[in-house]
Structures are given as C-alpha cells and as structure tokens.
Amino acid sequence: MESSMKVLCAFSGSLLLFIVSANALADTVAGTDGFIDIQTLIHSSVQLEYQGKVIQIDPWDRLGLAGAKPADLILITDDVGHHLDPAAIAKLRKPGAPVVMAANGADQIDDGQMMANGEVMTVAGVTVEAVAAYDIIPGEPSHPKGEANGYVVTFGGKRFFFAGVTECVDEVKALQNIDVAFMAMNVPLGRMTPAATAACARILNPRILYVYHYDQDYARRALQPDYIGPELPEGLTVEQSITRLQQELAGSAIELRMGNFYPPLN
User: Fold this and answer.
1) Is 243 exposed, middle or buried (0-12, 13-18, 19+ CB in 10 A)?
2) Of 49, 107, 128, 162, which residue is most buried, by most CB within 10 angstroms?
3) What's the pLDDT at 66?
4) Sign of the torsion angle spanned by Cα atoms 180, 217, 26, 19
C-alpha cells in the first residue's frame, strides 16, 4: 500500500478530495518492481529514489541538505538561485553524475548537459523529456519561451512531470499519461492562480498532483528575512490559496499531495 497520511476532505456534500498531510516528509508511489520514494525538500526541490537510484530536481542548499541523498542524476529547470544552486549540486552530485539543464544556466555548471525544449534523451538510464516552460501573461518577473525547461521523467515505470515555472502553455497541455505532476502555483503577476492550476491539472489528469513553488515570499525571505511581497490575486493568503485549489479540484479523481516544501526558515 502506498504510504502517506491522507485526510479526506468533503466539499459540496458528496464532492470528495484526498489530500496528503503537509507534515508528510516522504511519500511513495508503486513502481514496476517496488516503491518509488518521493521526498519534498524546499520550494521546488524534489528527490526521487527507486531501487537505489536517486534523482534530484532543483536542489537548493538554503536550509542544508540533511534530507537529500547523493544523486545519480540532477535536473535543473531554470537559472535562478533557488533552482540552480551550484553549491547544492556540488554537494549532492555523485562522481560523473550528469546535470541536465536549460541553456540559460550553461555558464554556471561547466559540464552541464543542455537540453532544449522538446528534446528527449536517456541520461543515467532514465528517459528525460524537456518541456517548454514560459509565461503567457507578460511582465516582470518574466520567463521567456525557450529559456527554461520542465521535465517529464520516466522512472520506475511511472511518468513524473516537473513543470518548473510555467503557465499552462500548449506544450504542457499536450502531455500524455502523466502519473505524478508537480506544478507551480501563485506565480507573480497573477499567473497560475489556484483556478488556473486546477484547470491545467484537469487537462493533464495525473493520478497525483503536488503543488510546489507556491509561496513566493518564502523564497525571498530565505535570503531577505524582512521581505514583504505583494498580495496574491483576490487578496488571498498562501494558506487560503491552498484551500481554493482544493475547492477547484473537488469532484476530480486527482489526489492532491502537499508535501513539505516550506520548512521553517532559520
């Protein structure tokens, strides 16, 4: 049985949605031959492990790496510090382990392996598809088309989608057979609101959805403790945005897992 503490939430009478407790440090999904461990680390950092092989996605060393294991493969979605952290990569990278990244980070990792949007390759025995990650709503901070990647990773017989920071662009909508999706929410300038995130998730229809990269102030406070950012659309708090997402997903077959992406800052 897959592990995770689940809370059954009811909306509008018979509408039900399973949500995993945010206190869960590690989850699992059933792979081809055993379980795939999913460790949510910080903001957009995720660790996958299956049969002794470890993949790190966007490792960030802001609070240390005590929960992270040495990686056979590292995937980087963007060139911003909480996505591309050379110190974290150096600490977690096994000798010779490939670091797959978008071209915008090429100057930070000398031997990084660049992937362009739409490219597919097998790296460290893992099939990786680079997916375009960009804005629809214009303005700053901007995420231009072609500069960053999301990734579809086939691992342990399951297809994991790590969206990176993107809106629900055509390349995302076209993805098929996603088992577990990680999607950003509350992106600045009203991008990927809870309603937009839920609508995109319904198109992808993964069995399991994690939202990550949804507390933008946290990422700034990690470096500037006194930072106070702009309000979310409709004046929602981060906690209220999660509730809104739950409501927007009600009645779907998607299992929402929150993980533990926001441990206390020290």
Assistant:
1) middle
2) 162
3) 87
4) negative
> Is residue 132 one of the residues assigned to a domain?
yes
Range(s) of the domain holding residue 214: 6-24+100-257
User: Residue 131 sits in a domain of what CATH number?
Assistant: 3.60.15.10
Q: What is the predicted pLDDT for the residue at 12?
A: 35
What distance in Å separates the CA atoms of residue 44 and residue 220, rounded to the nearest whole number? Answer: 13
- pLDDT score recorded for residue 266: 74
Residue entry with tokens 């098929």:
176
The answer, as to whether pTM is greater than 0.70, is: yes
For residue 129, give both structure tokens: 């598809």
Beginning with the edge strand found earlier in the chain, give each strand of the sheet holding 46-50 in spatial order. 26-31, 34-40, 46-50, 53-57, 73-76, 99-101, 113-114
**pLDDT tens column, 55-66:** 999 999 999 998
Give the angle 44-133-233 at the CA atoms, nearest 5°: 70
* pLDDT 10s digits, 144-182: 999 999 999 999 999 999 999 999 999 999 999 999 999
Q: Which residues contact 147 (CB under 8 A, 6 or more apart)?
A: 78, 79, 102, 103, 104, 134
Cβ atoms of residues 34 and 20 within 8 Å? no
- Angle between helix 238-249 and 194-204 (nearest 10): 40
**Residue 233, in any domain of the structure:** yes
